[in-house]
Structure formats: structure tokens, C-alpha cells
Design a protein that fits this description.
Two copies of one chain form a homodimer. The first copy, chain A, is mainly alpha-helical and about 220 residues long. Chain A is about 40% helix and about 5% strand. Chain A contains six helices and two strands. Chain A has helices spanning about 1-10, 15-25, 45-70, 105-120, 125-135, 145-165, and strands at about 25-30, 35-40. The radius of gyration of chain A is 23 Å and the shape is extended. The first copy, chain A, starts with a helix and ends in a 54-residue tail after the last helix. The relative contact order of chain A is 0.11. Chains A and B meet through helix 2, strand 2, helix 3 and helix 6 of A and helix 1, strand 1, helix 2 and helix 6 of B. Chain B binds a DNA duplex (16 and 16 nucleotides) through helix 5. Chains A, B: Keywords: DNA-binding, Homeobox, Nucleus.
Chain lengths: ~220, ~220
DNA sequence: CTTTTATGAATGAAGG
DNA sequence: CCTTCATTCATAAAAG
């Protein structure tokens, strides 16, 4: 795996992780037509992985501390560096560049929204929406409509996932053995708040102190 | 949000068995003498692992950036974070940590889908989707979501092409940077910078030199 | 191997 | 609430 290689070639760039991972997959046959794949790691690789993660955890903790010390006596409200316009850089085809046209929650906003959502109440009432919007506006552009839509969509998503995860259908398919096709998305909700979008520094906020405990699965 | 990924591979038939192995998630063997020990992970776990690591990498990068912006802010009031790019799936070295797999229609599946699409009916109804999925599953792994997405994307593509072949009026509109903050009750017009690039500054001054060295280990 | 393109997937917003 | 559409992102596949 990449980790193993990294140790030996610190400056080598790997742009095809996927392929490497694939190569690391062992294939097993069951002898009756089907095969199954599993990812295999050696003890050494597992050990390296643990160390890597451990290092990240430590670094994160210390960076958080550093952040605290740096911000304890500063007014972050003035650090309005977010929402900068960025060129998509589509120079190759000379495409036009246009501004974003739809709202994208910042990580903090998302985290807050998720937390509210998880509290179980359905779509917030109008006054509640106003309140939430007000709170979230401290972390970036947002409107009541955004909040409303977010809850609508989040609910739908949640619902769909439940249907997929709970396909109360017995797998007693008669005739042929239709290899279970519906292996729908398995969203992992038990993980970190969305990190898929850019977050500006001021939006980085660890309201979740269990950073280091999320890797329980490796221990 | 985003970490909801599909888990689509080619070993569904033995999913359960794998899960069982997972439970132990620590021992693997060849079953005949145990000559070699290996760690076995399912794709799902691998995916989780990747994301966990990805998250750490992202957090670290963001914290570093935040640190930079905060420290520089003390000097230059108007300083700006350049085109910050923070792809959560990439480390500062452009090293992809997280990978995800996605469905790819087999030629036969594609042919069938195209044929259905050409028959003109719009987005198939749910039961129809099930039917199609069922049919296509005989030609390879596929899920209802895949089918649904395919039709959505196929139509969008079709539409786009039509616009191209139908060169209506010229519209050499200059992209304006003006942004009207989408406020309550109006169509959102906000913009948010998105993916850009981030680099782990080598010159970052860690309070604890140990961090720096350990980071290096990760690169 | 690196870059570009095609397209699967995620999700904000709109309409009913 | 549900469905549909538009836009964006990430990546498999193709090109260089």
C-alpha cells in the first residue's frame, strides 16, 4: 500500500492510489463460480498505519492547542478571508469562469446543522429557522431558505438511506441466484463532519473533542 | 454529506462471510497451516480507513492554513489567503489518500440503457427502475441508484448537447464579480470558493519541533 | 507517468 | 413531503 511505499520513497508522487490498492487486493475463489475480494494488510503495514494515524492525531491535537493560543486574544471576526473568489482554472478549454451560484455550507455550518438535525426534531418551524440562520450567519453567508432547503434535503437523504439500509426483503430469491445487486451507498454517518468542502480558517472549529477517539476501529 | 459513498465492488455474493471475517478483523490465514498472517479488511473498512486518514490530513492542513492566515493577519490587516485549495482527499503533496470506487456500466449494460433511453420515456418510474436494474444485474453489478443516476445524467448530457448543436444567440457576457448576498427569502446568489489548493508550508514554525519531523515522516 | 475528458455521484434548489 | 433538475466534484477511462 501507499504507506509502505511512502516510507521508502518520500518524494515520490503517487497519483494512482487506486491502482496500487487494487494490486494489494487479494482475490480468493470459492471454487464454485464466484469469487470474493478482500483487502489484505500485513502486520507491518497495519503497524505503519497505526503510527501514521497516531501521528496525525498528535499533530491535530497540538495544532488545536496552537490555534487556541493564537486566537484567545484575537478578534477573528475580522478575519473575513473566506468566500474568496477562485478561478476554476479551466484554461485548457478556455471555458468561461463564473461565480458560484449555489450556497455551500461551510464545515462549521454543516456541523451545526447536522447536530440540530440529529436532535431529532423534524423540519424546524419558521421562527426556529430564523434563529438557526442567525446563528449560522456568523460562520458564513446563509439565508433562511438555505436552511429550510437543507433540512428538507437532509431529511430526504436520511430517509432514502434508511430504505436502502433496511431493505426488508428476504433474500429468498427462488429461481436463480441473483447476486445481490443492490449494494447501495453505505453512508457512514459515524464519522467526521463533512470535510469535502473548503473551510476557511475561521471556520475550523473543533467542537468535537473526540478527534482522537474516532479511530477506535483500529484499536 | 459527502462521505456517503457507495460501496460497489464485485464480491457481493459473499458479503456476509466477509463481514464475519471483519469481526475479527485481525486474523487472516490461508486456512491450511497458517503459514502467513494477514490483516483482512473489507472494502467498506478500507473506505472508512481512507476517510479517517483523509480527515486527519484535512484537519491538519486546514489548521496549518489557519495558523498562517492568523499569523500573517497580525502583520497585514488586509492580507488574504491566496487561492486556497483544500481538497480533502489530497494531502499537501498531492497524494491521494482517499479513494472511492464508482460503478462503471459494462458495454452490455450501457447498450441496454441507451436503448431504453432512446425509447423516449423520461426518467423511469421507481418500479421501472427496479425492473431495469434487475435486468441489468444479469450483466454485471449494478444498483437501482446507478440506474437512476444514469438516466439523470444521460438526460442532462442529451440536453447539453442539444444546446451546443443549437447555437442560439451570442452571449458574450463578461463574468461579473459582483455578488449580491443572498438574503432572506430571495434566490440564493451567494458564492463560495471551493476547491483550491493548499500546500503544507515547509516553513511553518511549529511550537514543537517534534511535530515537524513527524509530519515529514508522513510525506 | 501525466494530463484531459467523460461521466457517476452528491446535493442545493425549485416545483407540485 | 416527494420528485426533478442544475451544478459541482471526483474519478475511471482515454489520450499524450
Amino acid at each position: 500500500m501507499e504507506w509502505e511505499k511512502q516510507e521508502q520513497h518520500h518524494h515520490h508522487r503517487h497519483h494512482h492510489q487506486q491502482e496500487e490498492l487494487e494490486q494489494n487486493a487479494n482475490v480468493g475463489g470459492n471454487g464454485n463460480g464466484g469469487v470474493f475480494y478482500v483487502k489484505v494488510m500485513t502486520d507491518a503495514q497495519m503497524e505503519i498505519l497505526r503510527k501514521q494515524i497516531s501521528v496525525y492525531a498528535t499533530i491535530c491535537e497540538q495544532l488545536v492547542e496552537m490555534h487556541k493560543s493564537l486566537t484567545s486574544h484575537q478578534d477573528l471576526a475580522g478575519v473575513r478571508l473566506g468566500n474568496l473568489y477562485c478561478d476554476p482554472l479551466m484554461t485548457s478549454t478556455g471555458h468561461k469562469i463564473s461565480a458560484r451560484q449555489r450556497w455551500t455550507p461551510t464545515p462549521v455550518q454543516l456541523q451545526i446543522l447536522e447536530r440540530i438535525f440529529d436532535q431529532g426534531y423534524g423540519t424546524p418551524s419558521k421562527p426556529k429557522i430564523k434563529e438557526i440562520t442567525s446563528d449560522l450567519s456568523q460562520h458564513g453567508q446563509i439565508s433562511e431558505t438555505n436552511v429550510y432547503n437543507w433540512f428538507q434535503n437532509r431529511r430526504a437523504q436520511s430517509k432514502r438511506k434508511q430504505l436502502i439500509t433496511t431493505p426488508n426483503n428476504a433474500e429468498s430469491e427462488v429461481a436463480t441466484e441473483v447476486e445481490s445487486p443492490n449494494d447501495q451507498k453505505t453512508k457512514s454517518e459515524n464519522f467526521l463532519p463533512q470535510q469535502n468542502s473548503v473551510s476557511m480558517p475561521e471556520d475550523l472549529c473543533f467542537q468535537n473533542p473526540e478527534i482522537g477517539s474516532r479511530l477506535h476501529f483500529l484499536d
